[in-house]
């Protein structure tokens, strides 16, 4: 593998690790307090947007990797 492949893999793993941490924190909050208030609704919107964003970035990085190499 080349340096570009390693860097794309590192960015992808970093994004996914951050997303996993956010997921754990969000679901811990929901399990702990077991209600969905205004803050939780905003948190779920941010969670959904970040999930879609992580997916789009991952797909874009994979496409760029295949185009370059």
Describe the protein.
- The chain has two helices and no strands.
- The chain is mainly α and 69 residues long.
- The chain has one domain (3-68).
- The protein has helices spanning 3-33, 38-68.
- Helix 1 (3-33) packs antiparallel against helix 2.
Mean of the pLDDT scores?
78
Q: What portion of residues belong to β-strands?
A: under 5%
Estimate percent helicity: over 70%
SSE string: HH
Described by the principal axes of the CA atoms, the overall outline is elongated
Number of DSSP E strands: 0
The biggest beta sheet reads: none
Helix/sheet category: mainly alpha
Provide a count of the helices. Answer: 2
Total individual domains: 1
* Low-pLDDT ranges: none
Query: How many angstroms does the end-to-end distance come to?
Result: 10 Å
Q: What's the Cα radius of gyration?
A: 16 Å
